[in-house]
């Protein structure tokens, strides 16, 4: 055993002071002080309820509230002195309150435990951060919509297996990103419903013998209501896991965008110009312009998914109700929030400055026989069965490959060698413009359809 100290929480119960290393080892104040303002917000509501229910006097309630407001200011100004001896954010604030207001400060914890207190703090914290994250997603969505609008007519190759598949418009491709983010936004809003439930009143695990009014506290804090089971509400962190799961999906999406931006800005694709302000050079190769921001975001997606796994592993096998294990929920959660906010910010700042190299996109779509399906569809419209058409177009592609030409560059006579159904009007569907314009159903890539998709997406954002 290393040295001991004598300043222990509930020290009367203990014959020995806490081991000095254990004191530091078990403390969480270094990281949970991030929830200080939520802790104070929760305490003010709790004290107000205690006053309203006559559990403390009105005077005591007033003194407690003004003491807490003073502490809030001290923290804002960076004047508050955090102490590991007080273990966590809750004990630090409570100890300071008693310093300032004396004996009334010792009454704040009536009918409450750190177990329902910490669960409340995390919920208040997450609720506020989700608003920031939602605003970040919104900014990025608007940036994507604007870029899509500029590129509703820009033709590029669409890929499957990263091989040229069919021509699409760049606007349509961007709108796929928009849709992913819309679902991400929905998931966040949905998990907020389960976050916004109030644990206070559950106390340590079994509730409290004081005549508390949980509805009042819940109203004061803007929760949709008090939790239905005291054991459950001090123990489960499923709401944090759910949030981190939604965050992992957002990061997975950002990672996919990143991968495309990285590919497209390479010399091999050369589809886009990335803004210089979001790239860096190499310390050795003077010609380099590296897409650092997307690469870093792609990398950071791994750590957020890691946090999701951490939280799942933390929670599994815990018996009811609260266990100290749960103190480990905060660092993964906080880092998830920070990572997400920063990545969304970097993306929302960067996307407006990405420019499409339209000619390169167009030429690339021309090189990969992207209209082969259109030729098959043409033959089907003239009465041929699709499988036969598929076979015949394969032969035409072979000729193109052998002679280094796209389908639209083959002559009518050459094409007619494959089928008598082919006549002059075939060229209307072999061009890239004809191919995209034909896909004008809901969800299709035709420029007009994309413009409609963009305007209805703008409506959805405003709704
Ligand atoms: N610091 C603790 C946590 O983060 C607060 C709750 C402590 N409760 C307890 N019974 N030790 O979970």
Query: Which CATH C-level class of the largest domain is it?
Result: Mainly Alpha
With strands numbered from the N-terminus, the spatial order across the biggest sheet is: 1-2
- Secondary-structure class: mainly alpha
> Based on the structure given, which CATH architecture of the largest domain is correct?
Up-down Bundle
Please bin the fraction of helical residues: 55-70%
Order of helices and strands: HHHHHHEEHHHHEHHEHHHHHHH
Q: How many domain regions?
A: 3
Look at the structure and name the CATH superfamily of the largest domain: Fumarase/aspartase (Central domain)
Rg calculated over all Cα atoms:
31 Å
Bound molecules: arginine
> How many strands, what sense, and barrel or not for the largest sheet?
2 strands, antiparallel
CA-CA gap between termini: 62 Å
Query: DSSP helix count?
Result: 19
What is the beta-strand fraction?
under 5%
Taken from the alpha-carbon principal axes, the silhouette is elongated
Mean pLDDT across the residues is: 95
Q: Report the CATH topology name of the largest domain.
A: Fumarase C, Chain A, domain 2
What are the low-pLDDT stretches, counting only 5+ consecutive residues below 50?
1-6
| Total number of strands | 4
């Amino acid at each position: 055993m290393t040295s001991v100290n004598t300043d222990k929480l509930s020290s009367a119960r203990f014959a020995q002071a806490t081991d000095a290393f254990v004191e530091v080892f078990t403390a969480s104040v270094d990281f949970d002080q991030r929830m200080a303002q939520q802790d104070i917000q929760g305490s003010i509501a709790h004290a107000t309820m205690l006053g309203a229910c006559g559990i403390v006097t009105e005077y005591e309630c007033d003194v407690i509230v003004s003491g807490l407001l003073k502490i809030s200011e001290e923290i804002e100004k960076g004047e508050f002195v955090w102490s590991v001896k007080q273990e966590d954010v809750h004990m630090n604030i409570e100890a300071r309150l008693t310093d300032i207001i004396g004996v009334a400060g010792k009454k704040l914890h009536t009918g409450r435990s750190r177990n329902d207190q910490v669960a409340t703090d995390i919920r208040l914290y997450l609720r506020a951060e989700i608003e920031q994250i939602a605003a970040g997603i919104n900014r990025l969505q608007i940036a994507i919509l604007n870029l899509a609008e500029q590129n509703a007519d820009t033709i590029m190759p669409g890929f499957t297996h990263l091989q040229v598949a069919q021509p699409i418009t760049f606007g349509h491709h961007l709108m796929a990103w928009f849709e992913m983010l819309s679902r991400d936004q929905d998931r966040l809003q949905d998990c907020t419903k389960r976050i916004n439930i109030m644990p206070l009143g559950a106390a340590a695990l079994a509730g409290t013998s004081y005549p508390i009014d949980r509805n009042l506290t819940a109203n004061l804090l803007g929760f949709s209501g008090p939790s239905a089971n005291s054991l459950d509400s001090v123990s489960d962190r499923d709401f944090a896991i759910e949030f981190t799961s939604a965050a992992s999906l957002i990061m997975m999406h950002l990672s996919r965008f990143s991968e495309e931006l990285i590919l497209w800005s390479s010399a091999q694709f050369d589809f886009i110009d990335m803004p210089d302000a979001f790239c860096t050079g190499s310390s050795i190769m003077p010609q380099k312009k590296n897409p650092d921001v997307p690469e870093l975001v792609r990398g950071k997606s791994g750590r957020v998914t890691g946090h999701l796994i951490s939280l799942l592993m933390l929670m599994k096998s815990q018996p009811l109700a609260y266990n100290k294990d749960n103190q480990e929920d905060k660092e993964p959660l906080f880092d998830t929030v920070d990572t997400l906010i920063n990545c969304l910010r970097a993306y929302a700042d960067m996307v407006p400055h990405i420019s499409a190299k339209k000619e390169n996109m167009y030429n690339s779509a021309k090189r990969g026989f992207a209209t082969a399906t259109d030729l098959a569809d043409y033959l089907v419209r003239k009465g041929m069965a699709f499988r036969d058409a598929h076979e015949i177009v394969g032969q035409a592609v072979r000729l193109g490959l052998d002679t280094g030409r796209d389908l639209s560059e083959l002559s009518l006579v050459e094409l007619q060698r494959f089928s008598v159904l082919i006549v002059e009007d075939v060229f209307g569907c072999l061009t890239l413009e004809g191919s995209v314009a034909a896909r004008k159903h809901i969800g299709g890539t035709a420029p007009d359809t994309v413009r409609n998709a963009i305007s209805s997406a703008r409506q959805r954002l405003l709704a």
